[in-house]
Design goal:
14 strands; 498 residues; Nucleotidyltransferase, domain 5; 5-stranded mixed beta sheet; 3 domains; alpha/beta; 17% strand; 6-stranded mixed beta sheet
Length: 498
């Protein structure tokens, strides 16, 4: 097979307990795994009392990432996806750590919301199971959160991320190193309480197969099988026998179980307690185990983007439909914004695909806030764009789209730009300015075609050239641009209209 017929891709999952990496060849629409690496970094255990990642934990993480960076050296940007999960969602110093980690890897790191993590997990699991029309329940116990998903074939139907994980539960219920009946049952009860919030919906949907994913579930399955407590996968009876054995052993530091790896011992009792709580609350009798998980889901999501099956497009479409966005106006503004973008992208250094996508999505959603109120609708729209569940989007991507919506009218939101990375602020501000112009040009909401507009950008100056006398024949548009010139100046830019 020639090099032209295949493409190297990679995915890295910065989990609360372990960092994982998988490198694969994309051959048409299939993935052929080359190498999988996993290291126990225990980032979640490195959170201090102020919810900051300690220096020691950051150093462990960086040492691991340096090894990962060597393996993915040469794979181009856009062919590597790196995501952070629960610990990086909650850590107060996550931004500083991410800047350091991105410098090491040479690739951007996305922070994914819990439900997006769940969607990606299901995608990875479903591609590693035989194709079936059966509805599946998928459970993935991580270090800081547990994802529970119901799906059919390759699509998730219901996703949830629960605030319980084997690292956090170890600190809460087994910090002394003792495994007592009281502490174990308290952990099980707390897990059942977490599951109670989703029980009714999940039971009403139902499933024909329960599947577990990732290290904790696989470790439990291995112990149950090796000790003869389950024939294949994990059974409720096997879990109950495992519970008795753990309480009998009494301590984590002397825990020895056939099939249990030494690097899993510290968080194993907490993982068992969480899974037993899920089994009992959802009345699960048997669970199979999948080798696919988040990192494999990332790869399949990535190659979907390559083949123009980007779930993010469906998410934007769904949000527009849900909030009754006037499609004609959205598409008019989008088309004009795209025309301006094409003309100035090179000179304004915004040629990357992510910027083109951000501008397009911002244009399509710029009026989504009208579903809440006409007054300050750009602010309402930014809130919806930032806080809605948008499958396929990372938190950073939602933040960028929300900024477009917030900044398309009235005063340019310079304060909101302070929340985005320094290295992309200028580019996002320029995208914002282009969307503002497009929205102004379609103020009248008319289907009449726009004239040919020539746009030129030089530094902080944007020049627009209209056909002779067109602006004089459209005095309201001219008045809009005169007001817009003041807003541009407030943002440190100059708008010239000719």
């Amino acid at each position: 097979m020639s090099e032209e017929d295949r493409k190297q891709v990679a995915a890295i999952d910065l989990g609360s307990n372990s960092f994982h990496m998988v490198v694969a060849w994309q051959v048409q629409d299939e993935l052929r795994i080359q190498e999988s690496l996993s290291e126990k970094v225990q980032l979640g255990a490195g959170l201090d009392g102020s919810n900051k990642i300690t220096d020691e934990a950051q150093e462990r993480a960086c040492e691991c990432l340096r090894r990962f960076a060597q393996r993915i050296e040469g794979i181009p940007r856009g062919s590597v996806r790196v995501v952070g999960t629960n610990t990086l969602r909650v850590a107060r110093n996550a931004k500083a750590f991410l800047r350091m980690a991105e410098d090491i890897l040479g690739h951007d790191i996305e922070i994914v919301a819990g439900r997006e993590e769940a969607r990606l997990i299901y995608l990875g699991v479903s591609h590693h199971l035989p194709d079936s029309d059966h509805r599946r329940l998928v459970v993935d116990i991580g270090g800081g959160s547990t994802e529970v998903i119901i799906g059919e074939r390759f699509e998730s139907v219901e996703t949830e991320s629960l605030h319980m994980g084997c690292v956090s539960y170890t600190g809460r219920y087994f910090a002394s190193g003792e495994i007592t009946e009281k502490s174990f049952d308290r952990a099980v009860t707390r897990a059942r309480q977490e599951v109670l919030s989703i029980q009714a919906v999940y039971r009403s949907l139902g499933w024909q197969q329960a599947v577990g994913a990732s290290g904790t579930v696989k470790a439990i399955a291995q112990v149950c099988e090796d000790n003869g407590w389950s024939e294949n996968g994990i059974s409720l009876d096997g879990l109950q026998k495992l519970r008795k054995r753990l309480i009998k052993e009494g301590r984590i530091d002397t825990l020895e179980l056939k099939g249990l790896r030494a690097d899993r011992v510290g968080i194993f009792p907490a993982g068992v307690a969480i899974l037993l709580g899920i089994f009992e609350q959802l009345e699960i009798q048997q669970m199979d185990v999948s080798s696919g998980a988040l990192r494999e889901g990332l790869l399949y999501d990535l190659i979907g983007r390559f083949s123009h099956e980007d779930v993010r497009e469906r998410s934007i479409e769904a949000l527009m439909t849900r909030h009754h966005v006037e499609r004609g106006q959205a598409e008019r503004v989008m088309a004009t914004a795209k025309s301006l973008y094409v003309q100035v992208a090179k000179s304004w250094k915004i040629e990357e695909q992510e910027y083109a996508d951000t501008l397009r999505w911002g244009a399509l959603l710029h009026e989504v806030g009208l579903a809440v109120s006409h007054s300050q609708f750009h602010k309402h729209g930014a809130y919806l764009a930032m806080n809605s569940d948008l499958p396929g989007f990372s938190r950073q991507e939602q933040q960028m789209v929300a900024l477009m919506v917030r900044g398309h009218r009235r005063k340019v939101p310079l304060s909101a730009l302070e929340d985005v990375p320094v290295e992309t602020r200028e580019e996002l501000l320029r995208l914002c300015l282009l969307l503002r112009i497009a929205a102004r040009l379609h103020h009248a909401r008319s289907d009449n075609p726009m004239p040919e507009i020539k746009a030129k950008a030089t530094g902080s100056v944007l020049r627009l050239e209209f056909p002779s006398d067109w602006l004089q024949q459209h005095p309201l548009t001219l008045a809009d641009f005169e007001q817009e010139q003041e807003y541009f100046l407030g943002a440190g830019f100059e708008l010239e209209v000719m």
